[in-house]
Every structure is written in C-alpha cells, then in structure tokens.
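Job type: complex structure
Entries:
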Amino acid sequence: MNLGYYPGCALHGSSDDYQQSLKACFGALDVSLKELDDWICCGATAAHTLNHKLSIALPARNLALAAQQGCEELVAPCSMCSLQLKKAQKAISGDALLAAEMSRIVEAKPDGARVLNLIEALERVGLETIKTAVKAPLKDLKVACYYGCLLTRPPKVAEFDDCEQPESMERIVAALGATPVAWNYKTECCGAGMTMADEDTVLELSQKILADAAAHGAQSVVVACPMCHVNLDMKQSAIEARYGTKFGMTIYYLCDLVGLALGLAPKTLGINRHFAGRIA
Amino acid sequence: MSRIGVFVCWCGENIARTVDVDRVVEEVAKLPGVRCAVNYKYMCSDPGQTMIREKIASEKLDGVVVASCSPHMHLKTFRKAAQTAGLNPYLLEVANIREQCSWVHSDRDEATEKAIELIRMAVAKVKNNHALQPIKVPVTRRAMVVGGGVAGIQAALDIADAGYEVVMVEREPSIGGKMAGLSETFPTLDCSQCILTPRMVDVGQHPRIKLYTYSEVEAVDGFVGNFEVTIRQKARYVDITKCTGCGECSKACPLKKNKSEFDFGMGTRSAIYMPFPQAVPARPVIDKNVCAMLTRGKCGVCAKKCAAGAINYKDEDKLVKEKVGAVVLATGYKLYSIGKQDGKIAGYGEYGYGMYKDVIDSLQFERLLSASGPTNGEVKRPSDGKTPKNVVFISCVGSRDNAKGLTYCSKICCMYTAKHTMLYKHKVHDGQAHVFYMDIRSAGKNYDEFVRRAIEQDGAKYYRGRVSKITEQNGKLIVRGADTLAGTPVTVEADLVVLAAAMRPADGVTELAQKLNVGCDQFGFLMESHPKLRPVETNTAGVYICGAAQAPKDIPESVAQASAAASKVQITLSAAELTREPEIARINEKTCAACFRCFEACPYHAIEKAEVRNRKGELVKRTARVNAGLCMGCGTCVSICPSKNADIEGFTEQETYAMIESLI
Amino acid sequence: MSATMQSDSISLLESLAQTKFADCYQCGKCTAGCPRSAHMDKTPNQIVRMVQLGEVDAALKTDAIWQCVSCETCTARCPKSVDCAAVIDALRQVSYERGMTSKQQAAVVLFQKAFLDSVRRNGRVNEVEMIAQYKLEGFAAMRRLGFLFEGAMLAPRLQMHHKLHLIGEKVRNRDLVRRIFARCMDGKE
C-alpha cells in the first residue's frame, strides 16, 4: 500500500521520535509512506490566530502539491496539521470565489487529496490486517486512549468518529491485545500550543488528564498528536513538581503500540526518546 | 336571454373611497343579460340582503352577481339570501372588488375600470352557471378515539356522554397514557393517578364506550361519516373475560427481572404482568419475547396457578372491523431519546445518559417520586440506592436546539422541573436541587407563582446557562455548566442528574397519520387545519386531533383540546346525513375512456374504478367515478384528464373560459 | 467607534468566522465547556454578547481571546451552530491587525508571531530560531529577565534525546512562501 505523507514541522523537529515510530510501524505493515516533496508548514495555531487567509493558504499550498505529485491519500500524523488541511479543503470546496482566490495566492489548484489522521491511516490499513499481523499481544497493558481536541472537533470539519464518546482508538488498542480503560478525559484539551507561552495552562490541563487516567486504572496514555505528546510527556516532570503527584506514565504514540505488538523493539520505535515513564 | 341582477356594495368606505360605485353601476347595467344594477352601502346587512331578495322576485332574476368583499367573507350569506328568495344559490357569484381592487389600488380611475372588468367576468360566469344541489352523505353516528391517554379519555367521555357510541383503541395493555405514570401534577400538586383513575374507570365502565386495549389501527377505509377501520387486537395470551385480575400469575412467574415499560426502566416486572395496579382493564398480558413458554415451550406456571383458566398460550392477533363516522387522534407523546440516535436525530453524548446509571430523564424521575413507583416514592440513586443530596436538573434537552434539528420549545419542562425540585425537597429535607435553565416558560394560570415558590420557598438553586458536559468521578456526577448572569462557569457535584427531555410525537404516528391522510409537521407532530382558528381539525374531513400529538402541551390544554375535538365530532355526527358543498368533480361517464390517470392523481383517493352494466348484468364499459363524499374539488383530475371528461361543478371549463373571453 | 465602523467591524468578523452573531441566544454552553473560562476576563458567551451589543473594541482588547486554546469544544457543542472558536479567531485576527492586542497576553501574541516569522523565512518552523526570536521580543516587551530563561531546563534533555535540531530545514521554493505571506498578510497583489 502506498500513502502520501505530510510530516508537519513537529515531526521533523522536536517530535521526530513520532516520525521514527511512524515509519518503523508502517514499514512493518508493508505501507510505504511517500513524503510530500517540498511541503511547507500548515500554519498551525499561529496562522489561524493571526491571519485568516494565511490559515487557508498554507494548507492549500500543500494540497496543491499533493495534487501535483499525484498523491490521493495524505497521512498527516499531527492532528493540528490534519485538521488544518481538512478545514482548508472544506472551506475551498464550498466556496468557488475562495477557491479561485486560493489558487491565485498559492499559484496552483488545491485539489482534493483525502487527508487522513493517524487513526484514519491505520483504519485504512485495516483493523483485521493489523490484528492478523500482531506477534506480541500487549496483554497486561492498561492504557487510556487520549484523543485530544483536533482529531474529532469540530465534528463538521474533522468528520471522524464521535466527538463525545469516540471509540476508534480503543478498537485498535484492543486489537493489539491491550486493555483500553474507560475514563473521562478522552477529548479534553491538554493546553495545545501554549506550552511555551502559557505554561501554567498546560500544566493545569494536562495534570487533570494524567490524574483522571491514573484514577481509572491506566498505566499509560496513548496519543495520536505530537502536541499532546509534548504536554503529557515532556512536561510530565514539571506537572509532577507543580502538583506534587508522581505519575510516571509512559505516553505512547499509537504507532508505538502498533509497532510493539508487531514485534518491533522499543528502540526501533524511538520509545527510548520519550521523557516520562519506562520503556514499554 | 339571461336576467342577471348586479348588486354593487360600497362596503362603507372600503370600496366606495377608491371605486366610483355610481359609475360602475351605470356601466354594468349596459352589459348584455344584465336586467338591473344597483348599489348600496352595506350589501351584507339586513336591508342589503332584503334588496337582493326583493329584486330576485320583482325582476324574476335567474342569476345574481354581488360585487363586494372577498367571497371568503360573505358568499355563504348571499347564497342563503338567494335561496330564501327561491333562486338556486349556485346561480349567485361574488366579484371581489375589495381585496382584489379597492384595497390594493390607489388610482380611482384605474380601480373603477378594474371593478367593472371584474363584474363583467362574474356576469359571464353566472350566465354559464348550472343550478346545483348540495350533496347528502349518510353518517355512521359512532366515533373512534385512537389513544387512551388523558386527551383520548376526555374526548371519549365527552362524545359518549353526548349519546354516541365510541370505539377507543389503545396500543398499551392499559389506558391512562403518560399521566398515569406521573407522580403529582403542576401547579396544584394533585396526585396524578388520583385525578386520572376515576376517569379511566368511567371509560372502562361506560355503556357506550367499546374499549380495545393492546390494539392498534391496522387500516382505514372510507371518508367522513363512513369510515371503516380495521383494528389489530394483539394477542394478550390471557382471556380477559375469564380473568378475574387476581394477580396470582404475576406472583408465580419465575421471570421477574424484565425492565418495566411503565417505570421507564427504573423498575422490573414479570413476563406475565399488569402494567400497573390501577390498570384499566385490570388484566395482565404476556410479554411474548420473554415468556419461557412462548419462546421455548417451557414453564407454564401461570396457567397452572390460574384458578379461572384464563391463560391461553395459543392466542393469536385478531383483526376486527369497526364502522365509525368520525375519528379523533390522541396518540400523545414520547420523550426525546437522549443517549442514542433516533432516526435522523442525534443524542447528547456529552451528558452520559445510558452510560452513567445516575443520569436519568424526567419521566424516570417521576417514577422515583411516585408513591406507587419502583422505590415506593423514595428518591434513590439507581446506582447504589442511596438518597441523593444534590440533584441537578437540566432543561432544554432535545429542544431549542438547532444543531439537533429540534428547534421548538417543549413548553412543559420549565414547569415540571420546578415541580420536581419541590417534590424532591419535600421528600429529602436536607437535599439541594440545582436547575440549569435558559429561560423560564411559565405562562399559565398560577404557573409563574409556582416556579417562584420553588426558588423562594423550597430553596431550589437556578443557574442561567446550559450544561456542557457530565462526567462521573468517585460515584459523583461532575456537572459542568455556566451562569451567564454572573458571567462564570458553574460546576456542581451531583448525586443524581435529571434531564428534562423534550416531548416528541409517539412512535408510529407518521404511519398512522398516512392511513388517515393527515399531515405531520417537520417534527412529526400531527398537523392542524389552521394553527390559530382550527387547532383540533385536520385537512381530512372527519378526522380530528387533540393533546400532545398535535404539539407539546400540558394536561389542562390537552383536556381542553380533547373536549374541543369532541365537540367537532358531535357536529359531524349531529345529523343522520352530512351536507357537502356540491362544488366537486364530475366525470362524464358516457365518454370516459377509463384510462384512470385521474385515479392515480387524486390526492384524496376520491376516484373509484367503476363498472357500468346493462340490465342483464353484462359489462358495458368501465369508467372513473367520483366519490362525492371524499372529493375536495381540487381540480387535479380536471387538469390530468386527457379526454376532457372531468370538470368541477361550479367552476366548469365553460364557466371559466367565459370569464376569460369576456375580457378579450 | 462610530456606529458605521461598528457595523462594518461586525460584518468583517461575521465574514471571517462564517457565522452570524444574531444566531447566538446566550445559552452559555460554550462558557460551560471551555477549559479556560474560569480564568478569562470575559467568558466566551460574554464576548459574543459584547459584539451583539456593538462593543467590538472592548471584545478586541480582552485577554480572553488570547487565553483561548482553540480546543473547539464550544463550536462542537453550540446548539445554534455558532462557530464560537472561529469567532475568537476572527477577533484575534482583527485585534492583531489593528494593533489592539492585550498587553497582559503579549507572550502568547509574540509566540504566534515568532512562529509565523520563522515559517515566512524558511517555509517550515525552525524551532531554535523561533524560540530565540520569541525570547528576545518577549523580553523587550515584558522587561522580565526570568522570561529569557523559562523552559531552558528542558534543553539538556532535548539534546540527550536528539530532539534539539540546531539547524532547521528550509524548503526549496521559499520565494513562493514569501509571496503567499505577502499576499495574505501585507495585502500585496
């Protein structure tokens, strides 16, 4: 299977452990990820916060590249990127004037590649395919599936799973032999891009997530977004220091768990590069 | 040669201010066939009508045109006057020179010319009019009421007390509807069953009410005055004539843990059960999906215990036909389905209904409050049976929500929520009620005072804002809402959450309505004929609606509408024959080619496929035939008939073309 | 602000957010579900209310619009399908364009600006370059020495896990990126 791949800035930057994990995992599933050539930043929070046109134009440029490079399905493992791409697509497809304006601004036509977040990409591979490929079921692993905000919201743009009680990640995790716990903070915000500019917010919100996961019996948390990972993993020691609680929770990327169940070593998946918890 | 009289009305100033009525009279008197033309200030008044009658006699008129206001106002009046003078009423036409002339134009010359033209057209039509006789339809002087809730009960009793037989069809094993399950009713806090059960017994014992319970309407044929309804009596597996209602069967039944429908899942019942002790009829029914004998051929304990030998495992559904002259639909409501998708309408995933045991809806809370309920009237948490000390009530769940497609206000929830807080407080003295609301709708008699009492005397805390999410933590429900008046989010740790779910039409109503040609609005509520002036009639003659089936409403309104529907029924049944206006379709059966396109097109199913036979009984031809009782004179058949054999009496093609040609 | 300017601003905001302020019936569900509302100077429904009342400037100057973390919970749950998150975005965009951003929220504004500037230069975010600009501009605005060093303790661990990329990536067609920015932000051609 061939899928287009849009890494986004985080996966080439301080979250490149996510890319390492993704490539190893998809490689083991016999899926080739062809990186979009000369992709640019999707604009993330900064663009939609400061300039409306830019927030559509930057993703539009990438959609145009995808069209030019014959890419029909584009995996965007960062949930911010996947949402911004989907948002731009929706806005453009519903508005001919906007489409024309964007074509002019990005000097190409932003046609419709199908944008897939990490979970959608794994579903594209197929739950049954993954289940069959499992070599080392993750029994004894109680994990809280954390969706964060942008995988399912806003529902009319993301068009993915149920935004109040999603179950897509749980299904994959269960197929790997692990036990997803029922908990309350599946879709609560971790503080997103405020990590540097408003650390207090991130610590407060992320602490609630870790606390609830622990209270419901989870030993670790699994995410599908690099921002969520940073806030729950990199900031975990700061959270522990601020709130005086020890969590010691490993924060897995979903492809980490899939890779482990497929028999890959933690080091191959880059799990040793996480900050908090223990390796697997 | 025609002898037509034209009567031009001033309508006070309404016409005369803009139209030169003297000039109009002068001009129309010159029209060929016009015998006399006069004008008068108020043609509809006594002297005006007298003028018409006298002219008919003195001038031997064979046709009349009244140039006045809209025929909607006084056509009937003028036609009656003509009839009194011995002229067939359908030889009188109205030329509307008010709404269609003086009220919409300001130029006097132009308006006067137009008035003359309108009268010219009317005169041309009247020349071609035929005398018509009203149609008489025999009436079966019995009524049917579908639905045995408080509205259906009221309607049935009113009609039966007026002397007519009533057939009542109720889907559940007992009548009583939702009101039978309520605890107390606002604003008096009367015990609901105490005020309802006497009425239920009246229905059960009334000599003129034939009660079919555990039954549904299968099919409806016919038309006003002549309906034939097929009723499906579902198999009870209990012979209610033999059964004494002793209850031994339910006691003995080993399958006791089925969710009780009457308790909305808050309690349990046996496989053979009476829905509630005060049921009418007080007879049990067997749940065929659960009963061991009916599903697997095992057990049979109830039959062994039954001293009256009333159990019949071989029972089957029965189809019964009843003839009635009028039908009342009083099918009531169900609550909005909070937790899950219901057709195209989504649930509220954020409230945890169906996930958390202690998040319940308003009817479920009523059962907890009710003295005859599953907890004997003690308010207990479904999860652990403890008494909740903090109860959160959330308004507008499934109503006033455009995102869900349910934009309407459910009308009663503000009132019953206030009631809930009061009853809760009366039972749990150290309990605290919290209400999250958007607005308070308490417009009835003593209603607003009732809500203020809940706040000022019974200490309910009201927060103005919706709730965003409910989660469960350590056995408590964390309710995250807001108060927009103070401008702050509000979080309450509740022991129990009650969601005020919106009233929605009962299941299956759309299908039932289709059987009767009654429309439903976009939310599925039955459609009234006119929202202001005809709230209990439908567009199908002889079919009436009342109660929550028409729109969300409380008990006093349901009862009032039920009596209103009953009075309409009594009008329909008041004579052995119904008179209908003869302005309906007529098919020339001699030349009809029997292609039956009209049969397919008629929206009222008023065309029949008939056979014409000679004296020997041999088939001469087939023809389409209009059912005079059903036809509404819409004209669809006229436009679709390829051989021009269909026409509308009183609006024939000849009459209509005459009007057009008179202008050319 | 004159009445005409107000209604122009409101039209602008509605066009940016693709949503109508009149639709909001102030139910407060946005405020109820917002993870930040307890800390905001004006809650989400209050911000919408201010615009409904014509107090656009006041809305543009709030801290609240910069405290929003764009979690989209408000938009997802609004019973009137008002895109509240887009309204906050629209207010931020206009506030930034008009130089009316809250002083207390300078850190947030400067962070987003540093992010975009890095993208404008390179086509992708150069994290080290971005943080450097953020720290310097933030210090200049807030005059707090501590600001320069906040979060610095993370650097050694980042380095240990090979997450600190001192040399950022640059896309090949940077000229196009610059033209896109010019067209969107500077109104050029």
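Summary: Residues 170 and 213 of chain B are 5 Å apart (CA to CA). The radius of gyration of chain B is 32 Å.
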